[in-house]
Amino acid sequence: MFATNRKGFAMILAIFVVVLIALGGTLLLSNSAIGSKSISNGYLRSQAELLAQSATEYALMRAQGIDTSGGSCLNQLNITVYNSNGAVAGNEMFDISVSLVYSFRGAHAAGCAWVAENTGNDTTVLIDATVRDHNLSTESIQVHKRSWEKL
Fold this sequence. Notes:
Oligomer: single chain
Number of helices: 1
Order of helices and strands: HEEEEE
Distance between the termini: 103 Å
């Protein structure tokens, strides 16, 4: 009788199973890293959207306190948002740029950026707020918000 020796086949099968388990583990780790990055980017984008809303409201509040008939207008507002470690170079998280353009009921005031005058309507302001991140993630985060507000 012939005796067959299958020890080599068992070794090849064992190596194949180990390789399959290693590939599965690698795929799980890769998927976990991608999910974590996606959550982080989503959080930063939500934070930027809320900052754009806050900057719009802050600019409107500042514009309401200015006497536009006297030629003193708020046309531009720049804000830097720092992380919790404070306002130190390297701790910048977001830059916010807000521009304001006015539409006047009567003649436009000197010194004001304006888009329309003698409209017959209440004086309004077009507020453009742009939020940009400081390389917080691998993808650039930029949010733009535009709104017309009544003064």
